[in-house]
Design goal:
216 residues; globular; 6-stranded mixed beta sheet; alpha/beta
Length: 216
């Protein structure tokens, strides 16, 4: 059986615990929301095999979708190493956008070379509600860059993210997503097949805790 790149990366994320599904014992987000999924893509940097798969896929995605890119910009902090490695593979300049301007030196928010008019691709590790990545897009546009799009490792596929990205006029392309991860997790017996419906209910409305109710 052959698997897609999205499925292979989903399997890799599950294997190293970068994405962890626990529908019976939900995690609690900082917002207080109960979540059946925990995601920490920083762990991918510690796994040479998966790291190579991810960076190669990011570079290929950018090459295919944005061949005119002049520069890659990582989000701070998790997107920085992925932007750096992908930019190295593509032979492109790279920089990153801070969450806020420095309070010393030149008070930079954007680090690295960025010329006005440059066509830029933003590299992010994770898209949830898309609020933080849109702040990065706005900062780059204010600096005179043309943001071609966003490329990320994983997306929850939440409606809030789709709405915000649409309103900002920018498109995200993820290597893998919530639906693929849940399907692969069920296939690998990490969750039950019947858990998929509950997980997708969470994805569709994280504030509604009815997903936590067991189905018979």
């Amino acid at each position: 059986m052959s698997f897609s790149t999205s499925e292979q990366i989903a399997s890799g994320l599950l294997k190293i615990g970068a994405v962890f599904l626990r529908p019976k014992e939900p995690f609690t987000w900082a917002s207080g929301i109960k979540s059946p999924i925990y995601c920490d893509n920083r762990l991918t940097l510690s796994d040479p095999v998966l790291r190579t798969e991810i960076e190669t896929a990011l570079a290929e995605t950018i090459r295919e979708n944005y061949p005119e890119a002049d520069c890659l910009m990582g989000t701070s902090t998790a997107g920085i190493p992925h932007a750096a490695i992908a930019a190295h593979l593509l032979g492109l300049p790279m920089g990153y956008v801070r969450s806020g301007s420095k309070d010393h030196g030149r008070n930079n928010r954007i680090e690295g070379r960025l010329e006005k008019g440059w066509k830029v691709v933003v590299v992010e590790d994770l898209i949830s509600t898309a609020g933080s990545v849109i702040e990065v897009v706005d900062a780059l546009r204010e600096a005179g860059a043309e943001v071609l799009g966003i490329v990320s490792i994983f997306t929850y596929g939440m409606k809030a993210a789709f709405d915000r990205l649409s309103e900002a006029g920018v498109t995200n392309t993820s290597l893998t997503d919530f639906d693929t991860v849940t399907e692969v997790a069920a296939r690998e017996n990490k969750i039950r097949q019947e858990d998929i419906k509950r997980l997708k209910a969470f994805r569709d409305n994280p504030k509604d805790e009815n997903w936590m109710k067991e189905t018979v």
